[in-house]
From TrEMBL:
Pfam families per UniProt: NifZ
Protein name: Nitrogen fixation protein NifZ
Family as reported in the entry's similarity comment: Belongs to the NifZ family.
GO biological process terms held by the UniProt record: nitrogen fixation
UniProt keywords, alphabetically: Nitrogen fixation
């Protein structure tokens, strides 16, 4: 079993996405591969969890009150 990695960011932090975040098929109201949050979009972390198998922190980020997207640390930065 892998020890869980401590998250860098916390619930309530404002962040910016560092890449275009695209629909991987988990958003039925958007076309698959549609851009959900373009690079530079601001959002807020609304939940912090962990990927079970890799123990990697996963951040649920609400972008502009439109989509809540699961993000990895390398996909976001604090603002």
């Amino acid at each position: 079993m892998i020890d869980p990695r401590e998250p860098k960011y916390q619930w309530g932090m404002r962040v910016r996405c560092l890449i275009d975040l695209v629909n991987d098929g988990s958003f039925p109201d958007a076309e698959e591969d549609a851009v959900l949050a373009p690079e530079g979009t601001l959002g807020e972390i609304v939940q912090v969890g962990s990927h079970v198998e890799s123990s990697t922190p996963v951040y649920m980020v609400e972008f502009e009150q439109k989509y809540v997207v699961g993000c990895l640390e390398e996909e976001i930065e604090p603002v």
